[in-house]
DNA sequence: CGGTATCCTCGAAGATACTG
DNA sequence: CAGTATCTTCGAGGATACCG
């Protein structure tokens, strides 16, 4: 029992949301916008609603499956809204930010701006084939 | 040749940094700070340099291997600096933000703040066993 | 048009043991 | 103290084909 005083007694507090543990509030944010495509999708949605194919054209390197999955996750997380405007094909589906999603806009702008600053130094801009 | 006018002629420009393509400036930023642990590490380094074991204690769920790899990536990306202060064991190694890394601080603060706002609604704070 | 279904690859991250 | 070495797991994301 004496050894108790040598143990690490600093209580480490973490966040818990539905059985998931987050060691830092930044982890919570990254769970919403992390991954390869979410910030890109959200960045293109921030100026208004977009159709599925419009998003695809903005992201020439994403596969349909992945775009679809990411959109569904963002929808499940309450960040974006999916609205179907037709009953029969050809379908018209529009995606837009929810109010909760709009709360991310300043952050998205800042992420984009830091990337642009880095690009100024290190990147070249090329046109996709 | 007539069909050329039906093709998607909007030139899609992307960023290129050392053979990697980025469809959006947000992707560049996320390549630096994305993943499960980088924002956490950077957030804990933003107030000054930390030793390896100090970082471990802040992140009770990270494995040594992963922490080590993430630190090395951040170092290779020029975001943090690694300084060795002893020649023989026990070693003293300190990590700190570079000037480039410090340019991320406002962004890190904003990421943390958005996460805190969400936590206020949805998270509980628990003490790690 | 706006997706799913299926199968597959690959890298991030973890578990555990060991070391200068 | 501050890692590295090995092995393994797991899930994000990709390729391709098909569907309402």
Notable traits:
homodimer, 129 residues, three-stranded antiparallel sheet, two-stranded antiparallel sheet, 19% strand, DNA-binding
Your description of this structure?
With 129 residues, chain A is α+β, with helices and mostly antiparallel strands. Chain A is built from six helices and six strands. Chain A has a three-stranded antiparallel beta sheet. In chain A, strands 1-2 form a two-stranded antiparallel sheet. In chain A, strand 1 and strand 2 form a beta hairpin. The longest helix of chain A has 18 residues. The N terminus of chain A is likely disordered. Strand 6 of chain A pairs antiparallel with strand 1 of chain B. Chain A binds a DNA duplex (20 and 20 nucleotides) through helix 3 and helix 4.
């Amino acid at each position: 029992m004496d050894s108790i005083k040598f143990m690490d007694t600093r209580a480490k507090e973490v966040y818990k949301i539905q059985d998931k543990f987050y060691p830092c509030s930044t982890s919570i944010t990254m769970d919403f916008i992390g991954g390869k495509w979410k910030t890109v999708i959200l960045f293109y949605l921030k100026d208004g609603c977009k159709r599925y194919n419009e998003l695809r054209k903005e992201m020439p390197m994403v596969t349909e499956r992945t775009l679809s999955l990411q959109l569904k996750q963002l929808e499940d997380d309450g960040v974006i809204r999916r609205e179907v405007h037709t009953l029969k094909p050809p379908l018209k589906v529009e995606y837009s930010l929810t109010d909760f999603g709009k709360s991310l806009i300043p952050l998205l702008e800042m992420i984009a701006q830091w990337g642009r600053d880095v690009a100024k130094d290190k990147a070249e801009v090329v046109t996709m084939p």
